[in-house]
Amino acid sequence: MTALDKFLESLRPRLDAEPQSQVILVTGNESADLDSFISALTTAFFLAYHFISTSDPGTLTPIVLPFVNIPRADLALRSDVEYVLTTNKVDSSLLFFRDDLPRLTQIPPSHLSLFLVDHNKIADSMDMFPASKVVGLIDHHKDEDLYRDTANPRRIEVVGSCSTLVADEFFAKAFDQAPCLASDSRTDGTVLPDWAQQVSRLLLGPILIDSQNLDPARKKVTPLDQSLATRLLPYSGWDNFGDLYYQIDEARRDTSRLSAYDLLRKDYKEWVVHRATTGEAIKVGISSVVGLLNKYVARDGQEVVQAAVGQWAQDRTLDLSMVLFSEDLGETGGYQRQVLVNPVAAGMAEFTNALEAVQECELERITVVDTETFVKHGGRAYQQKNTAMSRKQIWPVVERIVTQAPPDANL
Q1: Which residues pair with 382 in a beta bridge?
Q2: pLDDT band at residue 182 using 50, 70 and 90 as cut-offs
Q3: In this structure, how many other beta carbons lie within 10 angstroms of the beta carbon of residue 90?
Q4: pLDDT tens-digit series, residues 68-87
Q5: Which of 156, 163, 136 minimizes the C-alpha distance to 147?
Q6: Whole-angstrom Cα distance, residue 264 to residue 261?
Q7: How far apart are the first and last CA of the chain?
Protein backbone atom coordinates (compact mmCIF):
# COMPACT_ATOMS: atom_id res chain seq x y z
CA MET A 1 0.00 0.00 0.00
CA THR A 2 1.48 3.34 -1.08
CA ALA A 3 1.39 6.60 0.86
CA LEU A 4 -1.39 7.75 -1.49
CA ASP A 5 -3.49 4.69 -0.62
CA LYS A 6 -2.88 5.21 3.10
CA PHE A 7 -3.78 8.89 2.76
CA LEU A 8 -7.13 8.10 1.13
CA GLU A 9 -7.98 5.34 3.63
CA SER A 10 -7.28 7.68 6.56
CA LEU A 11 -9.72 10.43 5.61
CA ARG A 12 -13.09 9.17 6.86
CA PRO A 13 -11.70 7.79 10.13
CA ARG A 14 -9.95 11.10 10.76
CA LEU A 15 -13.13 13.09 10.12
CA ASP A 16 -14.88 11.01 12.77
CA ALA A 17 -12.03 10.99 15.28
CA GLU A 18 -10.79 14.60 14.96
CA PRO A 19 -13.77 16.98 15.07
CA GLN A 20 -11.44 19.76 16.22
CA SER A 21 -9.13 19.55 13.17
CA GLN A 22 -9.19 22.00 10.30
CA VAL A 23 -10.53 20.57 7.03
CA ILE A 24 -9.43 21.65 3.57
CA LEU A 25 -11.69 20.62 0.70
CA VAL A 26 -9.74 20.39 -2.57
CA THR A 27 -12.24 20.58 -5.39
CA GLY A 28 -12.08 20.67 -9.17
CA ASN A 29 -14.68 22.24 -11.43
CA GLU A 30 -18.19 20.97 -12.05
CA SER A 31 -17.30 19.07 -15.22
CA ALA A 32 -15.21 16.64 -13.13
CA ASP A 33 -13.24 15.74 -16.23
CA LEU A 34 -9.95 13.88 -16.06
CA ASP A 35 -7.89 17.03 -15.46
CA SER A 36 -10.13 18.30 -12.65
CA PHE A 37 -10.33 14.87 -11.07
CA ILE A 38 -6.60 14.18 -11.02
CA SER A 39 -5.72 17.76 -10.08
CA ALA A 40 -7.96 17.55 -7.01
CA LEU A 41 -6.72 14.10 -5.99
CA THR A 42 -3.01 14.84 -6.33
CA THR A 43 -3.22 18.35 -4.85
CA ALA A 44 -5.00 16.97 -1.79
CA PHE A 45 -2.32 14.31 -1.40
CA PHE A 46 0.56 16.75 -1.76
CA LEU A 47 -0.94 19.21 0.72
CA ALA A 48 -1.50 16.44 3.27
CA TYR A 49 2.01 15.08 2.66
CA HIS A 50 3.44 18.59 3.17
CA PHE A 51 1.58 19.13 6.45
CA ILE A 52 2.73 15.78 7.82
CA SER A 53 6.33 16.29 6.67
CA THR A 54 6.64 19.74 8.24
CA SER A 55 4.80 19.15 11.54
CA ASP A 56 6.11 17.82 14.83
CA PRO A 57 5.18 14.19 15.64
CA GLY A 58 1.80 13.99 17.35
CA THR A 59 0.63 17.37 16.02
CA LEU A 60 -2.84 17.42 14.52
CA THR A 61 -2.52 18.38 10.87
CA PRO A 62 -5.36 19.64 8.63
CA ILE A 63 -7.53 16.95 7.08
CA VAL A 64 -7.26 17.46 3.32
CA LEU A 65 -10.10 15.93 1.29
CA PRO A 66 -10.23 15.48 -2.51
CA PHE A 67 -13.81 16.44 -3.41
CA VAL A 68 -15.41 15.57 -6.76
CA ASN A 69 -18.33 17.89 -7.51
CA ILE A 70 -20.63 15.28 -9.09
CA PRO A 71 -22.81 12.47 -7.71
CA ARG A 72 -20.81 9.29 -7.19
CA ALA A 73 -22.99 7.45 -9.74
CA ASP A 74 -21.90 9.90 -12.45
CA LEU A 75 -18.34 8.59 -12.32
CA ALA A 76 -19.60 5.80 -14.59
CA LEU A 77 -20.12 8.44 -17.29
CA ARG A 78 -16.41 9.26 -17.28
CA SER A 79 -14.80 6.18 -18.78
CA ASP A 80 -11.41 7.88 -19.15
CA VAL A 81 -11.35 8.80 -15.45
CA GLU A 82 -12.34 5.26 -14.49
CA TYR A 83 -9.59 3.90 -16.73
CA VAL A 84 -6.87 6.10 -15.20
CA LEU A 85 -7.98 5.37 -11.63
CA THR A 86 -8.25 1.62 -12.23
CA THR A 87 -4.92 1.24 -14.03
CA ASN A 88 -3.23 3.20 -11.24
CA LYS A 89 -4.98 1.20 -8.50
CA VAL A 90 -6.84 4.14 -6.95
CA ASP A 91 -9.98 3.12 -5.06
CA SER A 92 -12.60 5.70 -6.06
CA SER A 93 -14.84 4.64 -3.17
CA LEU A 94 -12.40 6.41 -0.84
CA LEU A 95 -12.94 9.79 -2.56
CA PHE A 96 -15.58 12.33 -1.63
CA PHE A 97 -18.49 13.13 -3.96
CA ARG A 98 -21.64 15.24 -3.74
CA ASP A 99 -23.26 12.28 -1.99
CA ASP A 100 -20.98 13.11 0.96
CA LEU A 101 -22.21 16.69 1.35
CA PRO A 102 -24.55 15.88 4.28
CA ARG A 103 -21.47 14.79 6.24
CA LEU A 104 -19.29 17.66 5.06
CA THR A 105 -21.86 20.36 5.82
CA GLN A 106 -21.73 19.28 9.48
CA ILE A 107 -18.19 20.65 9.72
CA PRO A 108 -18.26 24.04 11.48
CA PRO A 109 -17.64 26.87 8.95
CA SER A 110 -14.70 28.08 11.04
CA HIS A 111 -13.06 24.67 10.54
CA LEU A 112 -13.61 24.35 6.77
CA SER A 113 -11.71 26.00 3.91
CA LEU A 114 -11.51 25.43 0.15
CA PHE A 115 -8.67 24.88 -2.28
CA LEU A 116 -9.78 25.31 -5.92
CA VAL A 117 -8.16 23.50 -8.84
CA ASP A 118 -9.04 23.78 -12.54
CA HIS A 119 -11.30 26.78 -11.81
CA ASN A 120 -10.83 30.00 -9.90
CA LYS A 121 -14.33 30.96 -8.78
CA ILE A 122 -16.41 28.92 -6.33
CA ALA A 123 -19.12 27.10 -8.29
CA ASP A 124 -22.75 27.96 -7.56
CA SER A 125 -23.26 24.30 -6.65
CA MET A 126 -20.93 24.84 -3.68
CA ASP A 127 -23.12 27.53 -2.13
CA MET A 128 -23.64 25.35 0.94
CA PHE A 129 -20.22 26.61 2.08
CA PRO A 130 -20.80 30.39 1.92
CA ALA A 131 -18.46 31.23 4.78
CA SER A 132 -15.58 29.02 3.69
CA LYS A 133 -12.31 30.76 2.88
CA VAL A 134 -10.44 29.92 -0.31
CA VAL A 135 -6.93 29.17 0.93
CA GLY A 136 -5.41 28.21 -2.42
CA LEU A 137 -6.11 27.89 -6.12
CA ILE A 138 -4.34 26.50 -9.16
CA ASP A 139 -5.97 27.00 -12.54
CA HIS A 140 -5.44 27.56 -16.26
CA HIS A 141 -8.66 29.41 -17.16
CA LYS A 142 -9.55 33.10 -17.38
CA ASP A 143 -8.63 34.85 -14.14
CA GLU A 144 -11.77 35.98 -12.28
CA ASP A 145 -9.55 38.15 -10.03
CA LEU A 146 -10.83 36.66 -6.76
CA TYR A 147 -9.32 35.48 -3.44
CA ARG A 148 -6.12 37.51 -3.80
CA ASP A 149 -6.07 38.19 -0.06
CA THR A 150 -6.61 34.57 1.06
CA ALA A 151 -5.32 32.12 -1.55
CA ASN A 152 -1.74 30.91 -1.21
CA PRO A 153 -0.71 29.58 -3.61
CA ARG A 154 -2.75 31.54 -6.11
CA ARG A 155 -1.49 30.38 -9.48
CA ILE A 156 -3.32 30.96 -12.75
CA GLU A 157 -1.40 30.34 -15.97
CA VAL A 158 -2.40 29.52 -19.52
CA VAL A 159 -1.21 25.95 -20.07
CA GLY A 160 -2.73 22.89 -21.67
CA SER A 161 -3.52 21.08 -18.43
CA CYS A 162 -4.11 22.15 -14.85
CA SER A 163 -2.27 18.98 -13.86
CA THR A 164 0.85 20.56 -15.36
CA LEU A 165 0.60 23.38 -12.82
CA VAL A 166 -0.08 20.93 -9.98
CA ALA A 167 2.98 18.92 -10.97
CA ASP A 168 5.10 22.06 -11.17
CA GLU A 169 3.78 23.50 -7.91
CA PHE A 170 4.15 20.33 -5.83
CA PHE A 171 5.78 17.32 -7.46
CA ALA A 172 8.47 19.12 -9.41
CA LYS A 173 9.54 21.21 -6.43
CA ALA A 174 10.01 17.99 -4.47
CA PHE A 175 12.69 16.99 -6.99
CA ASP A 176 14.86 19.82 -5.70
CA GLN A 177 13.90 19.57 -2.02
CA ALA A 178 13.82 15.86 -1.21
CA PRO A 179 17.10 13.92 -1.32
CA CYS A 180 15.30 10.78 -2.43
CA LEU A 181 14.05 12.59 -5.54
CA ALA A 182 17.32 14.28 -6.42
CA SER A 183 18.08 12.24 -9.55
CA ASP A 184 16.08 11.46 -12.66
CA SER A 185 17.87 8.14 -12.95
CA ARG A 186 16.12 4.94 -11.89
CA THR A 187 19.34 2.93 -12.04
CA ASP A 188 21.58 4.90 -9.67
CA GLY A 189 20.46 3.21 -6.50
CA THR A 190 18.25 6.09 -5.42
CA VAL A 191 15.21 4.94 -3.45
CA LEU A 192 12.11 6.80 -4.50
CA PRO A 193 9.12 7.44 -2.23
CA ASP A 194 6.54 4.70 -2.65
CA TRP A 195 4.06 7.19 -4.12
CA ALA A 196 6.35 8.64 -6.83
CA GLN A 197 5.44 6.17 -9.57
CA GLN A 198 1.70 6.13 -8.85
CA VAL A 199 1.35 9.92 -8.64
CA SER A 200 3.55 10.65 -11.66
CA ARG A 201 1.45 8.27 -13.76
CA LEU A 202 -1.77 9.90 -12.55
CA LEU A 203 -0.49 13.35 -13.51
CA LEU A 204 0.80 12.28 -16.91
CA GLY A 205 -2.68 11.12 -18.00
CA PRO A 206 -4.43 14.51 -18.12
CA ILE A 207 -1.27 16.32 -19.25
CA LEU A 208 -1.10 14.12 -22.36
CA ILE A 209 -4.86 14.22 -22.98
CA ASP A 210 -5.28 17.99 -22.57
CA SER A 211 -2.21 18.77 -24.67
CA GLN A 212 -3.36 16.22 -27.27
CA ASN A 213 -0.26 14.08 -26.87
CA LEU A 214 2.07 17.09 -26.62
CA ASP A 215 1.51 17.74 -30.34
CA PRO A 216 2.35 21.39 -31.20
CA ALA A 217 0.22 21.16 -34.34
CA ARG A 218 -2.90 20.91 -32.15
CA LYS A 219 -2.05 24.26 -30.50
CA LYS A 220 -2.83 22.99 -27.00
CA VAL A 221 0.61 22.26 -25.59
CA THR A 222 2.83 24.89 -23.96
CA PRO A 223 6.53 24.64 -23.10
CA LEU A 224 5.60 24.03 -19.45
CA ASP A 225 3.35 21.08 -20.38
CA GLN A 226 6.18 19.58 -22.38
CA SER A 227 8.74 20.24 -19.65
CA LEU A 228 6.68 18.69 -16.85
CA ALA A 229 5.71 15.64 -18.90
CA THR A 230 9.37 15.05 -19.68
CA ARG A 231 10.34 15.57 -16.05
CA LEU A 232 7.66 13.23 -14.69
CA LEU A 233 8.42 10.39 -17.09
CA PRO A 234 11.49 8.93 -15.30
CA TYR A 235 9.48 8.56 -12.08
CA SER A 236 6.62 6.74 -13.83
CA GLY A 237 8.63 3.56 -14.41
CA TRP A 238 8.06 3.90 -18.16
CA ASP A 239 10.78 4.42 -20.73
CA ASN A 240 8.51 6.54 -22.93
CA PHE A 241 4.93 7.74 -23.16
CA GLY A 242 4.15 4.85 -25.48
CA ASP A 243 0.46 4.37 -26.10
CA LEU A 244 -0.74 6.02 -22.88
CA TYR A 245 -2.43 8.89 -24.71
CA TYR A 246 -4.18 6.53 -27.12
CA GLN A 247 -5.28 4.15 -24.37
CA ILE A 248 -6.87 6.94 -22.32
CA ASP A 249 -8.32 8.60 -25.41
CA GLU A 250 -9.86 5.30 -26.52
CA ALA A 251 -11.53 4.97 -23.12
CA ARG A 252 -12.68 8.59 -23.33
CA ARG A 253 -14.12 8.12 -26.81
CA ASP A 254 -16.11 5.02 -25.86
CA THR A 255 -19.57 6.54 -25.57
CA SER A 256 -21.43 3.43 -26.73
CA ARG A 257 -23.03 2.91 -23.30
CA LEU A 258 -24.26 6.50 -22.99
CA SER A 259 -27.62 7.84 -24.11
CA ALA A 260 -27.83 11.23 -25.80
CA TYR A 261 -28.98 12.70 -22.48
CA ASP A 262 -26.06 11.11 -20.59
CA LEU A 263 -23.61 12.56 -23.11
CA LEU A 264 -24.75 16.04 -22.10
CA ARG A 265 -24.22 15.27 -18.41
CA LYS A 266 -20.79 13.72 -18.79
CA ASP A 267 -18.66 16.85 -19.22
CA TYR A 268 -20.74 19.89 -18.36
CA LYS A 269 -20.14 23.39 -17.03
CA GLU A 270 -22.60 26.05 -16.02
CA TRP A 271 -22.44 29.79 -15.37
CA VAL A 272 -24.77 32.55 -14.22
CA VAL A 273 -23.87 35.95 -15.66
CA HIS A 274 -25.67 39.29 -15.76
CA ARG A 275 -26.56 41.80 -18.46
CA ALA A 276 -24.23 44.75 -18.17
CA THR A 277 -27.05 47.30 -18.49
CA THR A 278 -30.03 45.67 -16.75
CA GLY A 279 -28.48 43.24 -14.29
CA GLU A 280 -30.72 40.47 -15.65
CA ALA A 281 -29.39 37.04 -14.65
CA ILE A 282 -28.66 34.62 -17.49
CA LYS A 283 -27.91 30.95 -16.91
CA VAL A 284 -25.71 29.30 -19.52
CA GLY A 285 -24.70 25.64 -19.75
CA ILE A 286 -22.12 24.15 -22.11
CA SER A 287 -21.61 20.40 -22.57
CA SER A 288 -18.51 18.95 -24.22
CA VAL A 289 -19.06 15.68 -26.09
CA VAL A 290 -16.53 13.30 -27.61
CA GLY A 291 -17.67 12.44 -31.12
CA LEU A 292 -19.27 14.59 -33.79
CA LEU A 293 -22.94 15.53 -33.97
CA ASN A 294 -23.27 13.54 -37.20
CA LYS A 295 -22.36 10.37 -35.29
CA TYR A 296 -25.11 10.75 -32.71
CA VAL A 297 -27.77 11.86 -35.19
CA ALA A 298 -26.98 8.74 -37.21
CA ARG A 299 -27.11 6.59 -34.06
CA ASP A 300 -30.19 8.08 -32.35
CA GLY A 301 -31.99 10.26 -34.90
CA GLN A 302 -32.60 14.02 -35.01
CA GLU A 303 -35.62 13.97 -32.72
CA VAL A 304 -33.86 12.01 -29.96
CA VAL A 305 -30.86 14.34 -29.99
CA GLN A 306 -33.08 17.43 -29.97
CA ALA A 307 -35.22 16.01 -27.18
CA ALA A 308 -32.16 15.27 -25.06
CA VAL A 309 -30.80 18.80 -25.55
CA GLY A 310 -34.18 20.30 -24.71
CA GLN A 311 -34.73 18.10 -21.66
CA TRP A 312 -31.25 18.84 -20.28
CA ALA A 313 -31.80 22.58 -20.71
CA GLN A 314 -35.16 22.27 -18.94
CA ASP A 315 -33.75 20.17 -16.10
CA ARG A 316 -30.93 22.68 -15.57
CA THR A 317 -33.31 25.69 -16.01
CA LEU A 318 -31.02 27.20 -18.62
CA ASP A 319 -31.55 30.35 -20.65
CA LEU A 320 -28.99 29.20 -23.20
CA SER A 321 -27.53 25.75 -23.77
CA MET A 322 -24.68 24.76 -26.07
CA VAL A 323 -23.02 21.49 -26.95
CA LEU A 324 -19.44 21.32 -28.22
CA PHE A 325 -18.63 18.18 -30.21
CA SER A 326 -15.09 17.09 -31.12
CA GLU A 327 -13.42 14.09 -32.72
CA ASP A 328 -10.11 13.19 -34.31
CA LEU A 329 -10.89 11.47 -37.60
CA GLY A 330 -7.22 10.78 -38.28
CA GLU A 331 -5.91 10.81 -41.82
CA THR A 332 -9.42 10.77 -43.28
CA GLY A 333 -10.63 14.03 -41.77
CA GLY A 334 -8.24 15.35 -39.14
CA TYR A 335 -9.39 16.94 -35.89
CA GLN A 336 -12.88 18.42 -36.13
CA ARG A 337 -15.23 20.43 -33.95
CA GLN A 338 -18.95 21.11 -34.20
CA VAL A 339 -21.23 23.35 -32.13
CA LEU A 340 -24.94 23.05 -31.34
CA VAL A 341 -26.73 26.12 -29.98
CA ASN A 342 -30.10 25.97 -28.21
CA PRO A 343 -31.43 29.42 -27.24
CA VAL A 344 -34.07 28.70 -24.59
CA ALA A 345 -35.09 32.10 -23.23
CA ALA A 346 -36.71 34.70 -25.47
CA GLY A 347 -33.89 37.11 -24.72
CA MET A 348 -31.43 34.72 -26.36
CA ALA A 349 -33.13 34.82 -29.76
CA GLU A 350 -30.37 36.91 -31.34
CA PHE A 351 -27.52 34.97 -29.80
CA THR A 352 -26.89 32.74 -32.81
CA ASN A 353 -26.54 35.71 -35.17
CA ALA A 354 -24.07 37.35 -32.79
CA LEU A 355 -22.08 34.13 -32.42
CA GLU A 356 -21.93 33.61 -36.19
CA ALA A 357 -20.47 37.10 -36.53
CA VAL A 358 -17.47 36.25 -34.31
CA GLN A 359 -14.81 35.66 -36.93
CA GLU A 360 -12.31 33.93 -34.64
CA CYS A 361 -14.70 30.98 -34.17
CA GLU A 362 -14.93 30.37 -37.94
CA LEU A 363 -18.42 28.87 -37.82
CA GLU A 364 -20.17 27.38 -40.85
CA ARG A 365 -23.82 26.32 -40.69
CA ILE A 366 -24.57 22.61 -40.97
CA THR A 367 -28.04 21.09 -41.16
CA VAL A 368 -27.46 17.57 -39.87
CA VAL A 369 -29.77 18.05 -36.88
CA ASP A 370 -32.18 20.55 -38.45
CA THR A 371 -35.92 20.03 -38.34
CA GLU A 372 -38.56 22.71 -38.84
CA THR A 373 -39.29 22.86 -35.11
CA PHE A 374 -35.61 23.00 -34.11
CA VAL A 375 -34.84 25.87 -36.48
CA LYS A 376 -38.08 27.72 -35.65
CA HIS A 377 -37.07 27.85 -31.99
CA GLY A 378 -33.64 29.20 -32.83
CA GLY A 379 -31.64 25.96 -32.80
CA ARG A 380 -28.52 25.95 -34.95
CA ALA A 381 -25.55 23.68 -35.59
CA TYR A 382 -22.16 24.63 -36.96
CA GLN A 383 -18.88 23.25 -38.19
CA GLN A 384 -16.20 25.06 -36.18
CA LYS A 385 -13.24 25.60 -38.48
CA ASN A 386 -11.06 27.04 -35.72
CA THR A 387 -10.42 23.74 -33.99
CA ALA A 388 -8.01 25.33 -31.49
CA MET A 389 -10.97 26.85 -29.61
CA SER A 390 -12.24 24.48 -26.92
CA ARG A 391 -14.79 25.36 -24.23
CA LYS A 392 -12.09 27.25 -22.35
CA GLN A 393 -11.78 29.67 -25.29
CA ILE A 394 -15.43 29.59 -26.41
CA TRP A 395 -16.88 30.57 -23.03
CA PRO A 396 -15.37 34.10 -22.87
CA VAL A 397 -16.86 34.74 -26.33
CA VAL A 398 -20.28 33.51 -25.19
CA GLU A 399 -20.06 35.51 -21.97
CA ARG A 400 -19.24 38.69 -23.88
CA ILE A 401 -22.26 38.24 -26.15
CA VAL A 402 -24.88 37.32 -23.53
CA THR A 403 -23.91 40.06 -21.07
CA GLN A 404 -24.50 42.76 -23.67
CA ALA A 405 -27.95 44.31 -23.89
CA PRO A 406 -30.22 42.72 -26.53
CA PRO A 407 -30.68 44.82 -29.68
CA ASP A 408 -34.27 45.77 -28.83
CA ALA A 409 -33.62 46.62 -25.18
CA ASN A 410 -34.82 49.95 -23.86
CA LEU A 411 -31.63 51.81 -23.05
Answers
A1: 339, 365
A2: very low
A3: 21
A4: 999 999 999 999 999 999 99
A5: 136
A6: 5
A7: 65
